[in-house]
Amino acid sequence: MKTIIRRNGLWVRNKELIRLVPFRDISHILHSDGLTEIHTGKELLKRTLIPLGGLERRVPETIFFRIHRNYIINRLHIRQCDPDSRFVVCAGGNKFPVSRRRRKDFQRFINQNV
Question: How far apart are CA 23 and CA 6, in angstroms?
């Protein structure tokens, strides 16, 4: 199974179906147990062996931000974050930690892109 990145979205193959998922629809990407998972707010789209860093380099940096070594989030899906940027809540109620090392960069990212 292959996952191909394009400028306006991500081609995702599941069994017999291949579909283009626009970047705006991807809520978050996470790495767990050796697999990278691509999610919308509603569903798990794909599990892949592509490393999280590989996807991070291929998604638009004006939309996506790596908040933790295991999480990349889409700013369009952020619903709230605490004043110290210790966590982020995305659409669907998913709550993600922001690593201490990335908090200042995350605050700049939010201020520049909101």
Answer: 9
* CB 9 within 8 Å of CB 20: yes
What dotted CATH number matches 3-113? 2.40.50.1020
CB atoms within 10 A of CB 26: 26
pLDDT digits (tens, 9 = 90+) for 4-25: 554 688 888 877 888 888 999 9
Bridge partners of 10, per DSSP, are 5, 21
| Residue bearing tokens 């922001």 | 98
Average pLDDT over residues 90-101: 91
Report the predicted TM-score, pTM, of the whole model to 2 decimal places.
Answer: 0.86
